[in-house]
Amino acid sequence: MNSVADKPAWSVLWLSLPTVVPLLVVLGSWFNPQPDVWAHLNEFVLPTVIKNTVLMALGVALMVGVLGVGLAWLTAVCEFPGRRWFAWALVLPLALPGYVLASVMVGLFDYSGPVQTTLCAWLGPVNLPPIRSTTGAVIVFGLVLYPYVYLLARQAFITQGKRSLEAAQTLGMPRWLAFFRVALPMSRPWWAAGITLALMEMLADFGTVAIFNVDTFTTAIYKAWLALFNLPVASQLASLLAFAVLLLVWLEQRAIAQRRYAASTIDARMERLQLTGYAGWAACAVCASVLLLAFLIPLFQLTVWSLAVIRHDWYARYWGFIAHSLMLSSLSALIVVAMGLWLAYAQRQHPGPITRLWVRISTLGYALPGMLLSVGLFMPIAWLDRQLYPLWQSWGVDPAPVLRGTLLVMLLALAARFLAVGFEPMQAAMQRITISQQHAAQSLGLGRWQVLQKLFLPLLRSGWLGASLLVFVEVMKEMPITLMTRPFGWDTLAVRVYEMSAEGMWDRAALPSLCIVLVGLLPVLLLIRQTER
Amino acid sequence: MQDETIMQPHMHALELRGLTVGYPSASGTQLVLSDISLALAAGEIACLLGPSGCGKTTALRAIAGFHPLQSGQIRLMQQEVGSANHPMPPELRNIGMVFQDYALFPHLSVADNIGFGLYRRSKRERDTRIAQMLDLVGLRELANSAPHQLSGGQQQRVALARALAPQPALLLMDEPFSNLDVTLRERLALEVRDLLKQTGTTAVIVTHDQHEAFAVADRVAVLAEGRLQQWGTPMQLYHRPANRFVASFIGEGMMLRGHMGEAGQVTTELGVFKPESLPDGLHRDDPVDLLVRPDDIQHDDASPLQARVLAKAFRGAQFLYTLALPSGQQLLSLVPSHHDHAIGEAIGIRLELDHQVCFAA
Fold it and tell me: What is the C-alpha separation between A120 and B149, in angstroms, rounded?
């Protein structure tokens, strides 16, 4: 390795700022203690918040684990009617943001909702358990987040093949026992990482818990910021969330590290376990009911509601929401892909441990809740605004906050949150370009920039196309960052969903929800095409 | 242990009767194996030998129970363990298997891998057996290591110990040496043979390498295109090949053209021979081919028979000469390497054909 490669890429330090600054800000917020507010929080807020968070974490882990691993096992190893179709269709719920499913669920199951009223009409007065509860939230999270576990566990079951199961069988172990003794522990590095990802999403969520009226860290931060106007307390709350999330990141990285030793031989003529008769139809029914609950019924209900309201709801302001959503998504995609390319290229040219560590830190945002990033970036930008105040004045600009009034905070927070989404496809594409291809280009007299321009950019095309699509859709679905840091009156589709849901108008929330889901289907279909190959 | 097998010479540990296996395909069923029948005595080691795609691995998987039979029967210790109508699940067959990639469980230590098949036994019993097996394969000090920390040869021994721990009635090994360094293979093949003999294990080993098969096996089944070509000892395969395929697949050699003469005699350019057995339906003056191995041709300067050197390959102790007879027919000859002849030179040869095998031309 030459000396240039051993040197760390300092430019990566700049790219890590949107991630590192908010983390330092929320952790540093304890230097500004707020004893009065904390006395109140300790007594009235924190016990509920912690209890809800722990209960939901346990429930969601269990539910995504059972659903994800179980469905992956059925579609990866068994054969039953409709298996090929379910194998990809079960990924579809990824297109549904949690808050959309939550608004549909509440609309359907609440006291005045159609399910309850129908049941009452048939059976007299009945009381369903209240849907707006931690249980309701766990069910929604379970249904929208299980695909994370499903995709990873399926990959594990396919790559591990049936060889180890056969080995267990030749040792006298029946198949169902071999599932628990061999397949499950061997695939742990995959499904455990999937569960930690699902839990990160759960901790980051704001929309779902807001709709279900469940108090969690994100709703507490929201209230501290917008009701108490106490930014230090908001960021102190965010720092507690940061600890929980960093613990999950550590668990996830540990799981991924264990994958190195797991056997991976793809057996081309893998024969599937035939589920015949009742067993086959039972498997089919399980897959069908998950798909119905998590995707088809919500989509159907959204369509019905949208058609009902579209005539008088589709007025000029809608074009504004759509334009804002599209603009924000495209801008973020552009920024993230540029940053992702920079990171991937820097890591390629300087493959030392320091660069690797900084790239890891820069892409940590996927685990950091949007609330945390919003608070952590808003505070320093507001401070910067105050410092620049005299300068603005001398230029004759309106002395109202300048930077805060722009998209700057929102774009920085979104870039930090989704940098990993943009970086990983780029990194994967970069790894397919061999070192000798790069050396061949260099030996033909191309300089650094020419190598980037003539070799990497064309060969990375699939990488940056995929990355920009993913970021585009993630930003469109994103709620807390957009909600907290948008300039006044700058509403997007996701904000519209929140506002309508907050007022209990589930049918009017359906139209923007449906737009988001339809756009959200694009990358899911792309993902399905990739995994099917 | 070996005494036991000698005491029951007629007891067949494994019997295949008309084993036929197929894969479903667009046009009905495509047969991979047809009508394979053979019997293996307890304690014997058999090799399934053949070129790639001949169906040997399918045969092994069918015996283990991972592939359904089209027809035929598999019997183990006089009991049926599989037929087309009554497939017994693999876990009930009491057949151990060493997979080509070993398929060790990465989440378990060496000791736990070996003890995996003893999951129904008490902990004490299991620990005793694991210790025995570790001693047997000489890996006692690695008991707590993870599989990925072992070398290829050590992993193979763990796989073998794991398969043998539950004392299976039959052990199957799929290309057991193909993942190992070439220089290690021969030594390990002999080690495996010793270990199997020491434990009195009946085993079936799949390989495509005849040297491996000859080193390990008591009996060899040569398979080609899904059919059993010959079932016999290594000596029989080499010296009494049943057909042209076996003759050319096993060892080196050339066919010498001749004609049928009087009373079962064969006349060739190198003399007149009388093979012990002849193919049916041959008449006087019919053309036949006589199998001549390189070791059948002796170099003899005094011999009146002269052949010209066409090509030579140096093999250390010997040269393998490709020779042309005056008629242009070619033969191979192994000659000690101090007889270094130039290409084009004529040398004296003598034919010493102990095993006379011929086929209809």
Answer: 65
